[in-house]
Design brief:
single chain, 150 residues, alpha+beta, 2 domains, six-stranded mixed sheet, 3 helices, elongated
Length: 150
């Protein structure tokens, strides 16, 4: 499998993982709303239990909104482009680890290898950003050599 195909498949794995997260959060939001509905109207103006249920629903609704925004971010990655330097959407092979610059999903095991899906907001990205194949940099006292970029 060539590296562009690998990148495409990794993005699909990320999308699947993110969709599972979205589905789980939707379920929790629905459960919280159902609990509030089942409880009924507030018993008096000091009835905080229903308000607590609604705050819980709102909190998870915010998480759902963030998860949907991250899915939108994943959808913006053009997998047909081979990049010359490290940027958003890059698959970076270093001498230590493999990094997909997308959203912060963490460790992904795929095809018997480990990849790390990171956000462009994390410190290591700022160190490797705009680096090219063969460049070296240092992160937390450790040298990183970029072997390839897709």
């Amino acid at each position: 499998m060539n590296n562009l195909e690998l990148k495409r498949q990794l993005i699909e794995v990320c999308k699947k993982k993110q969709q599972e997260s979205i589905d789980n959060i939707k379920s929790v939001v629905d459960d919280a709303q159902k609990s509030a509905n089942d409880y009924g109207q507030p018993k008096d103006r000091y009835d905080s239990y229903r308000m607590q249920l609604l705050r819980k629903r709102d909190m998870f609704a915010q998480q759902l909104l963030k998860a949907l925004e991250q899915m939108e971010t994943l959808n913006k990655i053009d997998v047909s482009i081979k990049r010359d330097s490290v940027n958003f959407g890059s698959l970076v092979f270093t001498d230590d680890q493999n990094i997909l610059v997308s959203i912060g999903l963490g460790k992904i095991n795929f095809d018997n290898k480990t990849y790390f899906a990171i956000s462009p907001n994390v410190p290591i990205f700022h160190v490797i950003k705009d680096k090219k194949k063969g460049d070296e940099c240092e992160f937390r006292g450790k040298k990183i050599r970029i072997i390839d970029i897709v």
